[in-house]
Amino acid sequence: MDDDLAAIRVKRLEQLRAQQGAPGAGASPSTGAPGKMGGGAGGADEAAKRAQMEEMRRGMLVQILSNEARERLSRVSIVKPEKARAVEDYLLKLAQSRQLSGKVAEGQLIELLEQISSQGKTENKIVYNRRRSDSDDEDDLDF
After folding, report:
1. How far apart are CA 82 and CA 61, in angstroms?
2. Region for 35 from its dihedrals, namely left if φ exceeds 0, alpha if ψ lies in -120 to 50, beta otherwise
3. 72 CB contacts (<8 Å, ≥6 apart)?
């Protein structure tokens, strides 16, 4: 049953990609005329396409992630949406190149999160500069 769903989603994704190419050529003349309402309709179309692509993205993630991994990724996206998006992109890329075998478990997702966080990790160093005043003499430290 999962194979059937995957085949249907792949076909639908191909249809959407084909549709994206066709309206792009047809929308060029309408955007050339300033002051027309065609630009507003194009924005609505773009928003609808984005929403549809996000829905497909979520559907593909449902297929490749276990329930626990999906829950963890949703919690990560609340705190760090850019990190969650990077993990999703990476997982989708692996799935499209058929490098994933089975569903990604929570442990595997944790490893991916650690890898991504270590890649983008920069050291934050805090330096305290103490201001010296006239009363701060080194002679005061002699005991």
Report:
1. 16
2. left
3. 106, 109, 110
71: tokens are 């829950």
Q: What is the pTM of this model?
A: 0.52
Single-letter amino acid code for the residue at 45: D
Using the structure block, give the residue that is written with the tokens 């992630």: 65
Closest by CA to 16, choosing from 37, 38, 45, 41, is 45
Are 63 and 96 contacting, i.e. CB atoms less than 8 angstroms apart? no
Q: Look up residue 81 and give its two tokens.
A: 């949406």
Q: Alpha-carbon distance 121 to 23, whole Å?
A: 41
Q: Please check whether residue 60 is in contact with residue 92, taking contact to mean a CB–CB distance below 8 angstroms.
A: yes
Query: Is 8's pLDDT higher than 70?
Result: yes
